[in-house]
What does this fold into?
Amino acid sequence: MVAKHKNSILEKSINTFMNDFSQAHKEKLSKLNGLIDISGFEDAKEFINRHFKHYILA
It folds into this structure.
């Protein structure tokens, strides 16, 4: 995510996204080593839409 200026609302969205995603995938993330099989993170789009819906243009 790129922003021209610091934005506390965007910063909060990023932090809550990281916390929620990390909690949901705690076990998978702790086992990462070398190449990453992203198929285990299929729900990432849901997390992105939930936390950044106000910033997505589509």
